[in-house]
Amino acid sequence: MKDILLGASHITDFEGLDHILFLVALAASFDLTKLGRMALLATAFTIGHSLTLLLAGFDVVRSLIEYVEFLIPLTIVGTAVFQISGFNVINSTKVLRKSMYLFTLLFGLIHGLGFSSFYRISSSQDSSFIIPLLKFNLGVEIGQLVILLVTLSLFSFGRALGIHERSQQLVVGGATLGLAVIMAFENWPF
């Protein structure tokens, strides 16, 4: 249970604002009626995150944290720009929808690198870390679903007030873009 709570707190903690911003940017064109599809996108992110942590646990992956801390906000920038451009995941072709899942998985790999150094140090580097890792990532998934339920509920409330999807994309995409650019400059490694 401790590992599940650690995973949930990792994703919902405002110290990890980057994860929250990424999820909010990813959800910019959704509302509660699209919860299932949004949950699948979040799961793709968790799979990427999990793969990185698994590789870190086996000491296959090591990262230079100053570069990872710069790349993480760039994933948010990319997602926000994607939203601002007006792309509609729901009404897009099957190939474009699948590519969105792939990009989300890849961005999960990058976000996982941000936590991998800590995880590698705290794990025992043998097969006994796999069950705690699975529990940790279950907690991450639960935390993401909580964030998405709150976010999508707010977006659905906005829709009920007459806010159109495109307006939501622009406002949410613009806000997350602005915050992510600030985070990227704060973590500039060069």
Description:
The protein has 190 residues and is mainly α. The protein has one domain (2-186): Growth Hormone, Chain: A (Up-down Bundle), CATH 1.20.1250. Helix content is 77%, strand content 0%. α1 crosses α6 and α4 (65-84) runs antiparallel to α7. It is globular. The mean pLDDT is 87.
Q: Which features characterize this protein?
A:
190 residues; Growth Hormone, Chain: A; single chain; mainly alpha
Low-confidence stretches: none
CATH class: Mainly Alpha
Estimate the helix proportion, in percent.
Answer: over 70%
The CATH topology is: Growth Hormone, Chain: A
**Structural class based on helices, strands and sheet pairing:** mainly alpha
Number of distinct beta strands:
0
Question: Residue-averaged pLDDT, rounded?
Answer: 87
How many H/I helical runs? Answer: 7
Query: How far apart lie the N and C ends?
Result: 40 Å
The major beta sheet can be summarized as: none
How many structural domains can be distinguished in the coordinates?
Answer: 1
Query: Radius of gyration in whole Å, from Cα?
Result: 16 Å
**CATH-derived architecture:** Up-down Bundle
- The arrangement of helices and strands along the chain is HHHHHHH
Shape descriptor reads globular
Strand content: under 5%
